[in-house]
């Protein structure tokens, strides 16, 4: 019950990683507001978690973000934690990528996080502080084919996180980022439906499997919790060690790994 008596907003909370965070918060005693653009998914959340406040809000629209944070404060009397999870991408190779697709991806993944941070901070500064968690991606560090807009936006989220930590630390507002690797959610369904693509991913992931949304929610909740009270401006890779596997697997060329000899 690390979040007993706490209040939290999850932006993009009706599916995948956001939904796992929402469930975790509710299980640990928080009063939660779930914001999303999908009415259908919001209705499912309302049914599953009748205590939760659910609201339609598009994180790329400032007035809607402001209203969503205001609603949480109106209903709960304050805001302790805010999770900025909404994200998606319209992929395209740089040479073909349209301005519209660039804007869609960067508006959602980068501007959306900025707007959520700004309006969450307005309820935390001068009111005892709070904790924010931004969901970036391993792609903040690693580029991908046809993913320039997404990777650039996620790299931006990492810097936004550091800037928030710098500007708000003195007021007790902590800001951290989680950088997931491959997670099985509706967003990545196309990879899981394509065995060859999935195998190519798994060959890079030393822990040997993709993450489930709960594998990401745990570290995100930790960062928002009292246990992480001295952690701010940090980026936590939650990727099954994918980030360290850039070098090809040389075992086929070197033989089986040996055991150290006793003595
Ligand atoms: N799944 C992965 O492998 C993976 C890896 C790294 C990072 N991420 C990031 O994690 C976050 C969550 O992804 P997911 O895999 O859970 O995806 P998901 O599609 O399951 O969930 C994303 C949610 O965001 C909502 N959303 C989309 N646009 C929105 C908007 N404008 N305003 C408010 N809500 C909006 C969607 O309706 C959906 O409910 C994203 O930021 C994504 O980039 C995912």
TrEMBL record:
| SUPFAM superfamilies from the UniProt entry | NAD(P)-binding Rossmann-fold domains (SSF51735)
Coiled-coil parts of chain: none
Top-level taxon of the source organism: Bacteria
CDD domains, sorted: SDR_c
Pfam short name (any one): adh_short_C2
**Stored InterPro entries:** NAD(P)-bd_dom_sf, Sc_DH/Rdtase_CS, SDR_fam
Alphabetical list of PROSITE patterns matching this protein: ADH_SHORT (PS00061)
The record's family statement is: Belongs to the short-chain dehydrogenases/reductases (SDR) family.
Query: Which protein is depicted?
Result: Short-chain dehydrogenase
Native source organism of the sequence: Paracraurococcus ruber
